[in-house]
Amino acid sequence: MSNAVLKNYINGEWRLSSASDRLPVHNPATAQVLAEVPLSPGDEVNQATAAAAQAFLAWRRVPAVERVQPLFRLKGLLEAHADELARLITQECGKTLKESRGELQRAIENVEVACGIPTAMQGTFSEDIARGIDEFMIRQPLGVAAAIAPFNFPAMIPFWFMPYAIACGNTYLVKPSEKVPLTMQKIFELIDQADFPAGVLNLVNGAKETVDAILQHPDIRAISFVGSSPVARYIYAQAATHGKRVQCQGGAKNPIIVLPDADMEMTTRIAADSAFGCAGQRCLAASLAVTVGEAKQPFTEAIADAAAQRITGNGLEANVQMGPVITAQSRDRIEALIQQGADEGAQVLVDGRQPQIAGLANGSFVKPTILQGVPPDGTIASTEIFGPVLGLMHVETVEEAIALVNRSPWGNMACLFTNSGAAARKFRSEAEAGNIGINIGVAAPMAFFPFSGWKDSFFGDLHGQSHHAVEFFTQTKVVVERWPKEWSRQF
Ligand code: NAD
């Protein structure tokens, strides 16, 4: 794969992009160039959309029980190639092999849920809504839909949408992140083997120009976006301007609240995994920990210890617990934000800047970092750092902690660590975030629940995964039907 130019997959065949603009794809642990990704022009989006629109005419008429058969085959292929895919994810994205396997498993679970589409997209029927009249609602596919994906879960995120879209009878176009396009390239090789009809699933590599062509194409009916909030806002507005259905999952700043009655050993282990797992590059990463009352001292000491001990290195190595961040630019941005936090009054309790990692001098590494005493109105309290940096804050009551959660502009996830059912009940009811964890550090919904998100972390109404995806990828048609009795007499 070394220095290969990646291809697009359009109408069931691999095509070399005509783009003269290409970007190198790096291994962030070593800075080695793995391949080149073309920045496909709008014309190639047009080709993929035309193929998908043509395929839709037949695919929407294939019975749902038949449409899921290639998805069953794809599940088998993903499982059979899990090790190879996990290595690829680690190589281009940096996370550990264990994390890559976990993400792939989440992708596969979405295929499994989408295989239940014959039941999941059933309609409803009411007999005799008036004398001799029946009324029913059926779900029909929309047409061509598209996903625009971020870098941090190259396998999983397109699967929050793609299997549901095509199981519902739509045809599809995926635009992976230009930073991590290799995983989808490999997955589309498996899609090719799973025998979907040509044009049902298409892959177009690229960046902004490619995205803008998707946004403007009149035949693309629905767009699913996952990425940073400024881009999510842009996609949401543009898609609406062009009359499309749209769901945009954005960035986050996720707080975890630690009450004095929490099991400190368990809480620290889970909090460290949440803050430093995937090098903090998860939209559900804990990035603020708010201690309440007497939790402050034991939690601060334990989390500082856990941060300092985490083994950072190349995610391909078995003992490594945390890999690099995605790019050198990202590392520099994270380090600058740590400095800004310090300048605004936080104490750098554990400093992960400019680490020396043996044999990986060119990698983009930041080690786990803890900022203590983060001011509630400062930059760190509200900025998504997207790196292994945990800010610590302190309050005296659970009410104050909930108020702190709720004044945040973000609303992706909030977690509480406690032994108290009453506190947990209050928190889950009052905390303003779409995903809530109680003694859980990464409250990632299973495929049969929607992947929620509120406030500046989500733009739209229906989320990815589960019955939300089925609703997003179908339009309802209501039929009111009368068959007068006298017409039956002739038979
Ligand atoms: P990003 O916004 O930079 O890029 C996401 C996608 O948008 C990419 O495919 C990219 O090519 C495209 N893009 C980037 N800039 C664009 C522009 N100006 N116009 C049109 N398209 C553009 O995000 P990223 O850095 O790849 O991913 C990290 C972000 O994603 C973080 O903010 C993270 O919180 C968020 N994220 C959110 C969720 C969630 O479920 N809420 C899940 C994963 C990641």
Kindly identify the CATH topology of the largest domain: Aldehyde Dehydrogenase, Chain A, domain 1
The hetero molecules present are: nicotinamide-adenine-dinucleotide
Structural shape: globular
What are the segments in which pLDDT stays under 50 over at least 5 consecutive residues?
A: none
Strand order of the largest sheet: 15-16-17-14-13-19-20
Q: What class do helices, strands and sheet pairing give?
A: alpha/beta
Spatial gap, N to C terminus: 68 Å
Strand content: 15-25%
Keywords: NAD, Oxidoreductase
GO molecular function: methylmalonate-semialdehyde dehydrogenase (acylating, NAD) activity
InterPro entries: Ald_DH/histidinol_DH, Ald_DH_C, Ald_DH_CS_CYS, Ald_DH_N, Aldehyde_DH_dom, MeMal-semiAld_DH
Protein name: methylmalonate-semialdehyde dehydrogenase (CoA acylating)
